[in-house]
Amino acid sequence: MNYLLMIYANPETWPTLTDEQRERLSEMISDDRQEEHQA
């Protein structure tokens, strides 16, 4: 899970992701946004 955070912090690495990794990343990003709205 930690490596996804590093990828999230480095958008230039996104084109190299597999579809599965990209899916997890977008889920993680949307989770982050939901938490921000709750805060």
Short description:
The chain is mainly alpha-helical and 39 residues long. It is built from 2 helices and no strands. The protein has one domain (2-38).
Describe the structure.
- With 39 residues, the chain is an all-alpha fold.
- It has one domain.
- The chain is built from two helices and no strands.
- It is elongated.
- The model has no long low-confidence stretch (mean pLDDT 79).
List the helices and strands and how they pair.
Blueprint: H1 2-9, H2 19-38
Helix pairs in contact: 1-2
Provide the succession of SSEs: HH
The share of residues in extended strands comes to under 5%
Distance between the termini: 23 Å
Shape: elongated
Task: For this entry, give a set of tags.
mainly alpha, single chain, 39 residues
